Amino acid sequence: MTEKFLKRSRRITQVGFILLIFLIPVFDILRYDTATKELFLFGEVWTLGLKEGFYTDHSVTGALHIAVQFFLKAILPWLVILAIFPLAGYIGGRFFCGWLCPEGALFELSDYLTLKLLGRRSLYGKKPNDPELPRANRFIFGMLALLSMIVIPLLGGIALTGYFVAPKTIWHQILTWNFTFGVKAGIIGVSLYILIGSIFVRHVFCKFVCAPGLMQMLFGWVSPVSLRIKMDTSRISECTDCKGCEKACFMNVLPRKNKRDISCVNCGACIAACHKELGEGKGLFSFQRGEKQALPVQEPGGANGERHHPKQKSADGDTARVKA
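Request: output the structure for the sequence above.
Response:
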């Protein structure tokens, strides 16, 4: 998996999932209409499938029919929905967070624009793993940041409000500039949430607040088969200690520790960075599964168990210890 292919693939999946989130209510794939009090699922109104006469049937057969229908149409669907993220975590770790999550993509964009403008990812200070990027064209990036702060929250507010109000109703009110209280409150509320989160919170939300992310984190942690990123320790002497893998990680993971990290979202940024440093196809990191690769690989050390790394020639011919 080459550097360019990895980056391009991840951007495609992120943009594709964002478009899906926008289109789901438009095509009535899933939305609840607060006006009609109806739940739409794949274009149809979702009901318990009970005819009015069954409520007056007090026999055992009638009660059993109601119980079965309630389980199949009310309880079972929610159990399936609630199982999505634990199952995804058990199989793919936090793959959803790194490849599909719309908020994660927005936070990455915010990090990038802040890095271009201030030379660091965070508003609150520079971190050791912040990459060094030339701060050229700051006016252009400033205008882009300002535009993003206006357009993205508004579009997100419109799209997510569409899960509770018919999208055609929302757009009609926008075009006529005549809003009901519900539509106005929905758009403003969601827009403010997106704006505040993308400016002040960002990946702190991913680490400590997001419920789907926490479920993936926990189930991925205990899973012996979940997808993880592993460093090939048999080739550790090839590491140039450029720290590109650490600087590429927006979740502040240290990939060269080669162990499970609950913050890792399997984005593959460290894989791409290592390919860029060592050459296409020569990177030390890769996606793998299984319990064996999940544990840190310890090389023979001293009595205190300290891990030792091979030494490697630096550019000036001196030996330099590769740090992990």
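Residues 60-92 form the longest helix (33 residues).
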